[in-house]
Design a protein that fits this description.
Order of helices and strands: HHHHHHHHH
CATH architecture: Orthogonal Bundle
Strand content: under 5%
Number of strands: 0
Helix content: over 70%
Structural class: mainly alpha
Bound molecules: protoporphyrin IX containing FE
Radius of gyration: 18 Å
CATH superfamily: Globins
Length: about 180
């Protein structure tokens, strides 16, 4: 894999303008984040279950549902702590989450609205619990970073698979994509 998760995270932090103030604010609400994480997890999986395709994937086994509930809750809480100050550990964890979704075959068409649901659910909870607007903005930035990791994993995995199988150069592959986009 060519992507360096930590370098990618740094690029995204700059791109979404995640500031030191955002990080401190998130960490100061880490306990609150951990408290609401199980509710967010429930709301998230209720949303996924309403979709026929996602419902089928989710409910493949009882253990999968339990595992997901736990891992999603941890994921949510980590957005506040940043694990290692949003460093290499955070980047590697987000990258691995992206790879897991690619492996299972969950496409971007599912992931983008799913993250929008997270943003919407947490926004409502922020309002109910009377939390500041700045916290909502900081969380929105982190959600977009995490979303970019999952989305980028699709591109990285599929392009490296094609390059490996065909022996094409990256430049040729890009030309073919551009040509394909022009002809559709
Ligand atoms: C906001 C977007 C999403 C987030 C933040 C998220 C979060 C996570 C996390 C943290 C894991 C655990 C990864 C690991 O094992 O290391 C996971 C796995 C998984 N997610 Fe998602 N997910 C998202 C979207 C979706 C969607 C749209 C589906 C569609 C059904 C889905 C289904 C799954 C499944 C099936 C697994 C693997 C469960 C297993 O068997 O261990 N996720 N997700």
């Amino acid at each position: 894999m060519t992507l360096d998760p930590h370098a990618f995270l740094n690029t995204l932090k700059t791109r979404v303008n995640l500031t030191d103030e955002d990080k401190s604010l998130l960490q100061s609400y880490a306990d609150w984040g951990a408290t609401i994480a199980p509710d967010m997890s429930k709301a998230f999986y209720a949303y996924l279950n309403r979709d026929e395709e996602m419902n089928k994937i989710l409910n493949q086994s009882e253990e999968r549902v339990h595992r997901l509930y736990k891992t999603f809750t941890e994921w949510f809480a980590e957005m506040f702590t940043g694990m290692d100050e949003w460093g290499p550990q955070y980047a590697n964890r987000r990258w691995k989450i992206g790879l897991v979704h690619v492996r299972i075959g969950i496409g971007p068409q599912h992931v983008v609205p799913a993250m929008a649901t997270v943003v919407q659910e947490v926004s409502q909870r922020l309002k109910t619990d009377d939390k500041p607007e700045e916290l909502k903005n900081a969380l929105g930035r982190i959600c977009m970073i995490d979303l970019a990791f999952i989305e980028q994993a699709y591109v990285e995995v599929s392009s490296s698979a094609v390059l490996r199988e065909t022996g094409w150069t990256e430049a040729l592959f890009k030309r073919l994509i551009a040509y394909g986009a022009n002809t559709i």
